[in-house]
């Protein structure tokens, strides 16, 4: 029989299709079906956005978009190559300079996403001789990075300094990295960076702080590490995303010049990836300049976050994210749909996206919300909270949390 006439087996295809359908059925039964449908701009413009991470509204700031347009016209739509080939452009160097100015770090290295920045730094620092100690609530990218790093990994209870200390004291590896977020993406609470940095210093360990939700939000926008007086500390490393308060796209690792040199030569998501698109790099660079020059923008965000929490009758979280627990994933989905129908878009977090298995509405304050808009949104949120009262015990063990993805 000629190769072109060969009949390919179909049993495996059927088995795979059956498995995919079974997983779909499980998601449907648990109320965990997601969609990635395009937002209609005409409808989105009429809605109050309490769901996106564009905390300062910089993605639409004319200064930021003008910088992106100029970069496209000057350098083209893409970087065309890896940074270590010929993809490093002046706009990348300027971005890294502005990130250092904003955060107080000695050096920075830009990646094409915040996810890849986390994969890159833990992959480059990890290995059999490095113990990675992760807070249970860190982002999925950090969990994935730890698994891919070939390192021994310890997951400690959220915010538990005692467990971090125990892991550091009992380790047998010569190196250790404690991994936390400055402001957590679901609950919105913050890490005790001062205590963690001191603990790491006393045990000759690094502290890696994911500032994804801290940059542009905490410490007059310079981040929680800067606010804690830890900028430039030798044992404190940062990762940032450029797609949240900076309103663009990409990520970066910040730390010492020696760290940057190590990453440039060993971080696989940097070496083998096409460089960050010029438009995104220029936009993020301009946003960093705006935040550094105008702290009133961040102050408005903090005021709106406090007002939103007060009007909703929930405990104020230190960042932009305010969290409203829901009784179940199904309740969360229906509550979010009802709010959307009323003109308010909020985040709907369900397992496995939530680290504790408790579904919730994730409400993010925005710097450009008016008092009238917040009053309207808060009134709807209060109504939803009364209609869907939280009962955390009912969700215990529901599905798998993101640590088990």
Q: What would you note in describing this structure?
A:
- The chain is α/β, with parallel strands linked by helices and 405 residues long.
- The chain has 16 helices and eleven strands.
- The strands form two sheets. It has a seven-stranded mixed β-sheet, sandwiched between helices. Strands 1-10-11-9 form a four-stranded mixed β-sheet.
- The chain is globular and about 55 Å long.
- The termini are far apart.
- Mean pLDDT is 88; it is low at 392-405.
Topology:
Elements: H1 11-30, H2 41-44, E1 48-50, H3 62-75, H4 83-87, H5 90-103, E2 107-111, H6 114-125, E3 130-135, H7 140-148, E4 153-156, H8 161-170, E5 175-181, H9 193-202, E6 206-210, H10 224-227, E7 236-241, E8 251-255, H11 257-266, H12 268-271, H13 278-293, H14 295-312, E9 321-325, H15 329-341, E10 344-349, E11 360-364, H16 371-387
Parallel strand pairs: 1-10, 3-4, 3-5, 5-6, 6-7
Antiparallel strand pairs: 2-8, 7-8, 9-11, 10-11
Helix pairs in contact: 3-13, 5-13, 6-7, 8-9, 14-16
